Amino acid sequence: MRNAKCETRHPMLAPHEERLSLMRSLMWDYNIEPEHCLEVLEGKREKAGHYTEETLFRKLLESYSWFTILTIIPTDRILILLTDSTIKSLRFKSLTSRYEFIRSRLRKALSDSR
């Protein structure tokens, strides 16, 4: 069941169990708790296994579509994590320009809504 408070603040987020399932799939090759991964991405935990928020977010960007990422992490948190450093460290250079564009559009959309 979806957390009502979470749904009100971030209507695009998937239910918690679905988000955990996506983390499980992302980390299929590591024995790292999916809950810990979510906590790192939400800024509530420093590390999940050897992953920091930057390295875990980069893995997310390289593995899932933008629309899937929007269901995992709130947009305000994505904007914090979508740094120059993260974008430049993407393994697939085709993603670099895509996420630079997304970041600029996201910044504009959030500033227009305030």
Average pLDDT over all residues: 89
Largest sheet entry: none
Q: Could you tell me how far the N terminus lies from the C terminus, measured between alpha carbons in angstroms? A: 30 Å
Q: How much helix is in the residues? A: 55-70%
Separate helix tally: 8
- The rounded Rg comes to 14 Å
What order do the SSEs take from the amino end to the carboxyl end, as H and E?
HHHHHHHH
Please give the domain count.
1
SS elements, strand count: 0
- Kindly estimate the percentage of residues that lie in beta strands according to DSSP: under 5%
Spans of at least 5 consecutive residues whose pLDDT stays below 50 are 1-9
The secondary-structure class comes to mainly alpha
> What does the overall shape look like?
globular
Entry keywords:
114 residues; mainly alpha; disordered N terminus; 8 helices; globular
Describe the protein's architecture and organization:
This protein has 114 residues and is mostly helical. The protein has one domain (14-112). It is 66% helix and 0% strand. It contains 8 helices and no strands. It has helices spanning 4-9, 16-26, 34-41, 53-63, 66-72, 75-81, 84-88, 93-112. Helix 2 crosses helix 3. The longest helix has 20 residues, at 93-112.
